[in-house]
Every structure is written in structure tokens, then in C-alpha cells.
Specification:
The chain has about 425 residues and is α/β, with parallel strands linked by helices. The protein is built from 14 helices and 24 strands. It folds into two domains: about 200 residues, UDP-n-acetylglucosamine1-carboxyvinyl-transferase, Chain, CATH 3.65.10.10; about 210 residues, UDP-n-acetylglucosamine1-carboxyvinyl-transferase, Chain (Alpha-beta prism), CATH 3.65.10. Bound molecules: uridine-diphosphate-N-acetylglucosamine and phosphoenolpyruvate (PEP). The site of phosphoenolpyruvate has 9 residues, from helix 1 and helix 12. It is found in: Cytoplasm.
Length: about 425
Amino acid sequence: MQKIVVQGGRPLTGEVQISGAKNAVLPILCATLLADGPVEISNVPHLHDVVTTVKLLGELGAGITIDEHYGITVDPTTVHSQVASYELVKTMRASVLVLGPLLARHGHAEVSLPGGCAIGSRPVDLHIKGLQALGAEISVENGFIKARAERLKGARFVFDMVSVGATENVLMAATLAEGTTVLENAAMEPEIVDLAECLQAMGARIQGAGSNRIVVEGVPSLHGGRHSVVPDRIETGTFLVAAAMTGGRVVVRRARPDTMDAVLDKLKQAGAAIEVEGDSITLDMGGRRPKAVNITTAPHPAFPTDMQAQFMALNCIADGVGVINETIFENRFMHVNELLRLGADIRVDGHTAVVRGVERLSGAPVMATDLRASASLILAGLVADGETTIDRIYHLDRGYENIEEKLSGLGAVIRRID
Ligand SMILES: CC(=O)N[C@H]1[C@@H](OP(=O)(O)OP(=O)(O)OC[C@H]2O[C@@H](n3ccc(=O)[nH]c3=O)[C@H](O)[C@@H]2O)O[C@H](CO)[C@@H](O)[C@@H]1O
Ligand SMILES: C=C(OP(=O)(O)O)C(=O)O
């Protein structure tokens, strides 16, 4: 099994280009199933989750073409199956996002229940309730969500709690429903806006994406189209935290600074000088040690849970005590035990972690437990004395494109070994 080995102690300097967002490209790939013609997607990050989604679309019968820049064209006109198997869904929860599109376009769908994952139980009840509100008959049998509706009907639906995936599934389905759908308490993440823009390029009528009230006027059919995926704000944030922790100066290019307010505010509080110009962000730490910051995760535009582990790593070596509250997932502190192995001082009480910054971490073998936990261990390794070896990095490959090449380009000493 592959591992990443990091030699700590180098301030990061230079420039890095941000890839397309994992959390935007996955729903967008699923959305292509709604169309009556080919959909071309560019700025696609080369990630394991993208490979899995493409495999799933292929199993459903869609035609897939991949160009030399990893642009992906999906031709959904050859889809012959509406069944998403457990084998694929279990490896990637986002596969449940084919449910809404298959149901809306083909009148029925069977998608394996995704099950829990390391960070929490992650139920899909809101996806199901939202589609039922549009008139779908849904049962859960033998581990599959079985959905049926001759034609979905527009309705007003209020999400009990904010869910990114449920908003996406119901939004996609509503584009082909008869009449108007109003989604209240919708998720406002930038990836929802990107999905809506792709759907609009396919002929969908959507207003309000990016607010908590999305209005969709259903159309009889969607056509093919083109879309370029929004830059990844979590990858961007991860590189900025790396720069801040190592006391370096890094310019991230091809980012979307306007999607990053909460993260940039916390980096400023940690003592970083931040300059934004167009699609670039420069972070200059000037060799200073970061100051500890308090974090509470919450739906966008508040601080993203997907940046919690990285800021935990920053607090581990910061000056002072940082309190981290995780409000989205019930079990998203698994990196704590691994950070402790590197010499961190962290106490966890329920959903709160109190991190007392230490002067130095020391390298050790550690194990990644989920995607962002893996990133936090690399960040800690970048500042630890000696060598840190991170095992189970397949989690990392789900969501970071060429992370070791990108970090090496900034002067980090990092390599992948078999
Ligand atoms: C592929 C993708 O975009 N993944 C992101 C998406 O995941 P995902 O879409 O799975 O996350 P949700 O926003 O749905 O989950 C938020 C909370 O709602 C709960 N919930 C969700 C659905 C449901 O039907 N019932 C329910 O109770 C979840 O257990 C969780 O506690 O948003 C999360 C929260 O920003 C991010 O961490 C993930 O990186
Ligand atoms: C939790 C994450 O992703 P997913 O929802 O795909 O598991 C993440 O990107 O940090």
C-alpha cells in the first residue's frame, strides 16, 4: 500500500495552481444523466472519486470521452441501466447523486444505500424526503433506494437541516419536473452554484442558487452543454494553511477567493498577510509562528467542516490555545489521535477539541483515516522535526490532485513510496 513520506522543516515558497473542485465535479458528472445530448466538462481534477463516478456512469451505459487535458464528455443518450450497484456506491458516497437525475429522466432508479463512513453515519433521509415531495414513490429494500415517478411534479420543500447532497439531488430532479419547485433552507455552498450553472447551460431554469431559497421551473427536457468546474476552495485552503504553518509565502493561482471568506478570515486571525488579486491569493507569513484560532464548522458561508482538520494541524503548532467545534459530522476528530503521535497537545470533549500549541512536533509513522485527516497529517509533517510517514493515503487520492508534486514545487520534501 502506498505511503507518503514528508521531511519537515522547510518554509513553503512559490506558486501553485488550484484544480477543479471535487465537490462540484461529482454532482455535475451525475447531472449529465439529465440531458438529451453530450455534456462537455472542463477543469476536471484527476481524482480517484472522478474515476469512480465515470465508471458508474459507464456502467449505466453513458458514453464517456476523455481528452488530453482530462476534459470529460458524457453522452447520456445511451444509458440503458438505472441501477447503481453497491460495489461502486460503497466506495464513494457521492454516487447517491445519480438518484435524482435517473429518476427525473427515466422515471425510475435503484441506487444502493451508501452506508456510513469514517466521519459519521451520513444518512440520506433528506434526499428521499425531497424527492418524495416531488411525487416520487420511494421504498428502501434490500439495501437499495428504489424510486419511481412517471413525471415528477414541482412542489415547495423545506429541508429540515442544511444538506449539500440533498439540495443537489432534489435540485437536479426538479429541473425536469412539471411546474415550479421551491427549495427552502437549501445549502448555499459554491458547489451548488456551480452545479446550477452547469444545469443552466443544459437549459434548466433555476433562480436563487447560492441563497437558501432555490426556485426551479421545470422544463420537458435538457440539452447537452459545456461547463468548466469551479476551482477547489478546500484544496486552496489546504495550500494556504501549509504556507501559514511553515512560515512561508505562497501564491495560489486559478482560485476563487470570493468562495473563501471564512477561511481567509481565520488565516488573517492566525497572523497571515493575505492579498487577493483576481483569481490569485498571496499568503505571506514572514517566518512568523501562527497564532491559535477558534473554529466552529457550519454550512456555507460559515467555516467549512472540510477545512477543520487542516486548521487543527495549524493550531497544533500555533502560539496559544485554539478551540475547535465540529457541528456537521459526529465523528470528524479521527486525526486527533494521529496528531498526538506527532507530539500535539489536544483534548477532545464531545464535539469540541481544545488544542494547545506546542513549539515543535516530531515526525512519526501515522495513519490517515479519511480525506481531510490525511491532509492534516501532511501539514503536520511539513513542520515536524524529522520524517513523518503517512499510511493509507488512498483517502488523499479521492480529493487531492498531485498533492505531492504541488507541494514539492513549493519546496517541500515529500515523496510517495510503495
Ligand atoms: C461530495 C460532497 O460534496 N461532499 C461534501 C458534502 O457532503 P454531503 O452532501 O454528504 O453532506 P451534507 O451536507 O448532506 O451533510 C451535512 C449533515 O447533514 C446530515 N444529513 C445529510 C443528508 C441527509 O439526508 N440527512 C442528514 O442527516 C449529515 O449526516 C451531516 O451531518 O457536504 C459536506 C458538508 O459540507 C462536506 O463535508 C462534503 O465534503
Ligand atoms: C467529506 C468529504 O467528502 P465526501 O463527501 O466525498 O466524503 C470531503 O471532501 O472532505
